[in-house]
TrEMBL record:
Enzyme kind, highest EC tier: ligase
MF annotations from Gene Ontology: acetate-CoA ligase activity; ATP binding
Swiss-Prot/TrEMBL keywords: Acetylation, ATP-binding, Ligase, Nucleotide-binding
Protein name: acetate--CoA ligase
Length: 656
């Protein structure tokens, strides 16, 4: 899909942005020239970034980047020592304004609200770090953080980092087997969890799941429990520790010094699902993930000191830690929300933005597709005048919900920062910088410092057609391998073309310079020699008034090699077989009219829901496996397992 720009920044607007002011420090007024410099002289660029951001070093670095081990294993800021917990918090305490600024605002689904200033957060991190140290946590130990979106979740992350230990945030909705897998894979010494949390008005219990997981994670010695709900929970004396007991001793924690860490020392393990069943433990360092995340937010998204960011996510997904470090390293405020963004009504997310004067709101296209069904009634009465940027990540857009968000909610004034990268990136590859026009559903540039290109099957640059998204130079925040699996890391990203990172997205670049993601490269259909990104078919189907959501997979076809099969969530009652059959015929013809008869779906199946992760990403590989009766691989990231059954049934009927 290629569309014309609909948002155009005026020059006065451009000149106020942090990115433009950063460019001007080095004599650049033209973004494209600056971007080229950022990817051809990475030493200069990333040195300029950390200096301008004011990253605090305990020992200055000797070299910005050392590539002697190869492009896949860069050593950033070699010789430097720091601790990102110090830079995120203690560095700011000498500034009276920032010290008294809210670092965290928290809203519970049941309406509870609490705030924590930078000064207060630093004190609480010290207490927690002191308590963890007394329990035996030291440099290099791994601590699993299995928590909902609470202030204590952030405190835990920073306290572990301050001691030089390594934290592993795990999705709060995981059941015991998925949690146990991450405990064992990281060889965790401790788990920090909660008794539970609220979601869609229900109590979600966590301690019980943690206990089940611990039955097969023998290395865990201590379990620290935060009392969010105050409900009765199972308790094992000698192993389980109350959070309040951990953090009670303020005096002993007052002078706790942050551990000096080499710039390449691990900070965090982020686990992502793998298609072969074993999750991948992405290693991120003190000088990697936080700096990349904070740069993307601060400069590309124009998040300024004192701004307020709310991102609808979970701390177990990449955008959770992104929110933490984006806010703190830029002297802003993070707004943590515990529950569902459309509960108890479709106005919840907009009311949060209104009540807390949110300047940067992060959503997913799936959420907007849900909210747009309610029309303007979902945000009427909400003052969104503080909102400067709407961020979007997790999946490709369809045109209609993008336009609804831009035109109806943002009144064509608020830019939508489409943002795509991933856990292994520490942020974005592609984005919508605020110095250039923005077109619906696309990206106006790679993020500065990201040497992106699109290659054809022979490894040659391609424009105007679909190709493989790649990166041709390392960047700060690049995965520092997989935890204890270096060969798997190299095979995943560096094995196709020499010294080129293959990201796994199909992308096309239009003649006017806009980038569009059409889907994962392993999702892309090849129908009689014609490539079709699943998002293209899904966009067409969602454009029909009787369709809420759609997912497209490719299945073997005796004639065409591969054919498109679509799963649709209808917006009308299809309980009558005549209505269902009629809608199928309409949708097949609808797709044929817009994509051509050769690309029309072979079959369309109606389902109540699509299998998704909690952050809204449709799991097409799971749909395909269920439909074809194959092993689905790792399902630990799946938020709604029940959705698979209807797809399996459709596959059984297909084969009969």
């Amino acid at each position: 899909m290629q569309t014309k720009a609909v948002w155009h920044p005026e020059q006065a607007y451009i000149e106020k942005t942090r990115l433009f002011r950063f460019m001007q420090k080095f004599g650049y007024d033209d973004y494209d020239a600056f971007y080229k410099k950022s990817i051809t002289d990475i030493d200069w660029f990333w040195n300029a970034v950390v200096q301008d951001m004011g990253i605090a070093w305990f020992r200055g670095y000797d070299r910005v980047v050392d590539l002697s081990a190869g492009i896949g294993w860069p050593s950033w800021f070699k010789g430097g020592q720091l601790n990102i917990a110090y830079t995120a918090l203690e560095k700011w305490l000498g500034d009276e304004v920032i010290a008294r600024r809210d670092a965290i605002r928290w809203v519970g689904e049941n309406g509870e609200v609490s705030c924590c200033t930078y000064e207060e957060l630093a004190g609480q991190v010290n207490r927690a770090a002191n308590g963890l140290r007394k329990l035996g946590i030291a440099k290099g130990d791994r601590v699993v953080i299995y928590m909902p979106m609470l202030p204590e979740t952030v405190i835990s992350m920073l306290a572990v980092a301050k001691l030089g230990a390594i934290f592993t945030p795990v999705y709060s909705g995981y059941a015991a087997p998925a949690l146990a897998g991450r405990m064992k894979a990281s060889d965790a010494k401790m788990v920090i969890t909660a008794d539970g949390f609220y979601r869609r008005g229900s109590v979600i219990r966590m301690k019980e799941e943690a206990d089940k997981a611990l039955q097969s994670a023998a290395a865990v010695e201590k379990v620290v429990v935060v009392r969010r709900l105050g409900v009765d929970i199972p308790w094992q004396n000698g192993r389980d520790v109350e959070w309040t007991a951990l953090t009670v001793d303020a005096n002993a924690a007052a002078n706790l010094q942050a551990e000096a860490m080499d710039s390449g020392d691990p900070l965090m393990l982020l686990y992502t699902s793998g298609t072969t069943g074993a999750p991948k433990g992405i290693v991120h360092t003190h000088s990697g993930f936080p700096i990349k995340a904070a740069f993307d937010a601060g400069y590309a998204m124009d998040f300024r000191p004192g701004d307020v960011m709310l991102w609808v996510t979970d701390m177990g997904w990449m955008m959770g830690p992104f929110l933490v470090f984006a806010a703190l390293l830029n002297a802003g405020t993070m707004l943590l929300y515990e529950g569902s963004p459309d509960y108890p009504g479709p106005d919840r997310i907009w009311r949060l933005a209104h009540q807390h004067q949110v300047t940067h709101l992060g959503i997913s296209p799936t959420l907007i597709r849900v909210l747009m069904q309610h029309g303007e009634s979902g945000f009427q009465g909400c003052d969104l005048s503080a909102l400067r940027v709407i961020g979007s990540t997790g999946e490709p857009w369809n045109l209609e919900p993008w336009l609804w968000l831009f035109q109806q909610v943002g009144k064509e004034q608020v830019p939508i920062f489409n943002y795509s990268g991933g856990t292994e990136i520490s942020g974005g590859i592609l984005g919508n910088v605020l110095l250039k026009p923005i077109a619906p559903v696309g990206f106006n540039t790679p993020i500065p410092g990201m040497y992106a290109d699109v290659l054809d099957h022979e490894g040659k640059p391609i424009r105007g057609d679909v190709g493989e998204l790649v990166l041709k130079a390392p960047w700060v925040g690049m995965a520092s391998g997989f935890w204890q699996e270096p060969e798997r890391y190299e095979a995943a990203y560096w094995s196709r073309w020499q010294d080129i990172w293959v990201h796994g997205d199909w992308v096309t670049v239009s003649d006017d310079g806009f980038w569009y993601i059409t889907g994962r490269s392993d999702d892309t259909l090849n129908i009689a020699g014609k490539r079709l990104g699943p998002a293209e078919m899904e966009t067409v189907l969602v454009g029909h008034p009787s369709v809420i959501e759609a997912a497209t997979i490719g299945v073997p076809d005796a004639i065409k090699g591969e054919a498109a099969v679509c799963f649709v969530v209808p917006s009308i009652d299809i309980s009558a077989s005549s209505v269902a059959e009629g809608l199928v015929a309409q949708l097949v013809e609808w797709a044929a009219q817009q994509l051509g008869k050769a690309l029309k779906p072979k079959a369309i199946h109606f389902v109540d829901a699509l299998p998704k992760t909690r952050n809204g990403k449709v799991m097409r590989r799971v749909i395909r496996a269920a439909y074809l009766g194959e092993a689905p691989g790792d399902l630990s990231a799946l938020d709604n397992p029940a959705a698979i059954q209807a797809i399996r049934q459709a596959g059984i009927h297909r084969s009969n």
